[in-house]
Write a structure and sequence with these properties.
about 0% strand; globular; mainly alpha; 11 helices
């Protein structure tokens, strides 16, 4: 029997408060556990991404060949495509290296002369002092830089291990992921089985729609950036286009950061006018991405308000760095789609 002396709104707020606290504790525990095994969690996530991309190709090839052969052909084709792109980027960077060094030296000298003139009138001694200070910092922290390089080598081994595990998982997800999910659902009672099947179907549809859509956004952005930088004569157009492709996986902030790097390269190599044109390119591509491409992606998956996306990206970046910023939006979209699927009536299975 509720105490009549306690107002009704206060009782309602208290009921919601302890439930929110309980959910927060559960989320904290889950993320703490995942943090202890974050390499495995990342590998499974990447395996699901690879499966979302390759599953349609494998399903199509399975019409003409046995399923294992279709999965192998789709996976090998994807690896060949990725390695081909990386080879193209490496050859492009290596071919422009000699000319690029001269352009950057000339560009830096030009920028220094412009900064020494009006309206800033920075003294040339300031640049000499800056260069000497950078040299002193590098020489005094040589051991720290060496240890950082060694830790980077160990991180490279971890990255390769995670990639190998993700490919290994994707092989089984692509080949028989539906049977694995059905086996998991069969371990629950009939009522829970229906809810789990509905939630899993909604989650997978959202995840695949978002993954394929964000790939379309990234490829479109990279193509536009590559063409624009090539027309403007900015060096390293292909590597910068690849950087834009990778940065597009971080919604809202990834593309501007990548294009800012392109603007710095344009400033150092081609001067202020070309750099300004690249800044204009940042604005144009941002408008295309924000008003055309991303709404299309969210219509394929789940419509999330831009404020929700922004808060999710910032929260993911604070919690887990770049990886958190990449994975948080599809996770939020999946969670929302599961909530919507479980909120409504669940149809009986056929």
């Amino acid at each position: 029997m509720p105490d009549p002396r306690v107002p009704g709104p206060l009782r309602t707020a208290a009921a919601y408060a302890w439930r929110i606290i309980a959910v927060g504790i559960v989320v904290r525990v889950v993320f703490s556990v995942l943090g202890q095994f974050h390499q495995i969690a990342i590998a499974v996530f990447l395996g699901l991404v690879i499966t979302a991309v390759l599953r349609p190709v494998a399903d199509f090839l399975a019409r003409f060949t046995p399923r294992p052969l279709a999965v192998a052909a789709a996976l090998i084709g994807g690896l060949v495509l990725v390695l081909g792109v990386l080879t193209l980027v490496g050859e492009s960077a290596a071919g422009q290296r000699s000319g690029l060094q001269k352009e950057f030296v000339t560009g830096v000298d030009r920028i220094e002369r412009q900064l020494e003139g009006p309206p800033l009138r920075i003294s040339s001694h300031a640049f000499d002092d800056l260069q000497s200070r950078i040299g002193e910092v590098l020489s005094s922290h040589r051991s720290a830089l060496f240890s950082t390089a060694l830790s980077g080598a160990s991180r490279l081994v971890e990255v390769l291990t995670v990639l190998a595990l993700s490919v290994f998982c994707s092989v089984f997800f692509t080949h028989s992921g539906d049977r694995q999910w059905q086996w998991l659902c069969d371990q629950f009672p009939a009522g829970g089985r229906r809810n789990l099947a509905a939630a899993g179907g909604a989650a997978w549809r959202t995840f695949t729609g978002y993954t394929r859509g964000i790939l379309l956004v990234a490829a479109t952005n990279a193509l536009l950036v590559g063409i624009a930088l090539f027309v403007l004569g900015v060096p390293l157009a292909v590597p910068l286009a690849l950087l834009e492709f990778l940065a597009a996986f971080v919604p809202l902030i990834g593309s501007p950061i990548a294009l800012a790097v392109a603007a710095v390269v344009a400033l150092a190599s081609k001067g202020v006018f070309i750099a300004l044109l690249v800044v204009v390119l940042i604005v144009v591509i941002g408008q295309i991405e924000g008003h055309l491409l991303h709404p299309l992606v969210m219509s394929w998956a789940v419509r999330l308000h831009p404020v929700v996306v922004a808060l999710a990206v910032v929260g993911g970046a604070v919690a887990a760095g770049v990886i958190g910023a990449v994975v948080v939006v599809p996770l939020v979209a999946v969670a929302w789609s599961v909530y919507q699927a479980l909120r409504g009536p669940v149809d009986a299975p056929e």
